[in-house]
Design brief:
This is Peptidase M10 metallopeptidase domain-containing protein. Keywords: Signal. InterPro entries: MetalloPept_cat_dom_sf. Residues 1-22 form the signal peptide. By secondary structure, the chain is of the alpha/beta class. It has a single domain (6-200), classed as Collagenase (Catalytic Domain) (3-Layer(aba) Sandwich). Helices cover 17% and strands 28% of the residues. Strands 1, 2, 3, 4, 5, 6, 7 and 10 form an 8-stranded mixed sheet that branches. Helix 1 packs across helix 2. The N and C termini lie far apart (45 Å).
């Protein structure tokens, strides 16, 4: 079977109809100091919540003046806009996406770095395998407390992908030194690859943003 890398995506949606932007790290926005809650949509599998929380913890460990807090599975909306729930970063279900996960950032237009208003992370629900009752597909997202490089097979690691998306939330775009590799913010995550830690330059970037 052919190995296919999983695409990880980020879109910046600025107020005043500014165009979408994608570029190298860092991204042209920042969140004000303080904290922002995280909500997980009820439609996403509760079995993956612990991996999502671990992803948030990893990103919070770098750059402490802005923290993501209160990861809970209680978000019930099926539609999201920048003005609906701006005090929360929402993790939402999605489908028919080319990416396994993607992040949309809402922010004010203006010279970089502009202030971010909010963010939504979408998870491709067509690509989730988390339960032994499902038929596993080789490139499905997989989660659980016992997933390691020795037993993940050709699945896509949920926690690695979610940590990448949380990196987008806190201000990092994809790396410019290659689309694959060992660092968190590469564009692609290979089947069977586990990347749950920041590389030193990624950590330094977040510390530069948020102290």
């Amino acid at each position: 079977m052919t190995r296919k890398s999983a695409l990880l995506a980020c879109v910046l949606a600025f107020a005043n109809a500014a165009p979408a932007f994608a570029g190298p790290i860092p991204q042209p926005y920042y969140f004000p100091n303080g904290s922002r809650g995280v909500k997980i949509n009820y439609a996403l599998p509760a079995a993956c919540d612990a991996n999502t929380k671990a992803a948030v913890d990893t990103i919070n460990a770098a750059g402490r003046s802005f923290q993501l807090t209160g990861t809970t599975q209680n978000y019930t909306s099926t539609y999201y806009s920048a003005t609906e729930d701006p005090e929360f970063i929402n993790i939402q279900d999605g489908s028919s996406m080319s990416a396994i996960m993607r992040t949309i950032i809402y922010g004010y237009s203006g010279p970089a770095p502009a202030q971010a208003i909010d963010a939504t992370v979408y998870v491709n629900t067509d690509r989730i395998y988390y339960d032994t009752g499902d038929t596993a597909q080789s490139t499905d997202l997989i989660c659980g407390s016992s997933i390691t490089s020795s037993n993940i097979g050709q699945h896509i690691d949920w926690q690695s992908a979610m940590t990448h998306e949380m990196g987008h939330v806190k201000g990092m775009d994809h790396r410019t030194d290659g689309s694959t590799g060992p660092c968190l913010m590469t564009t692609y995550l290979n089947p069977g690859q586990i990347k749950r830690s920041l590389c030193s330059d990624e950590r330094a970037l977040l510390v530069g943003f948020y102290g």
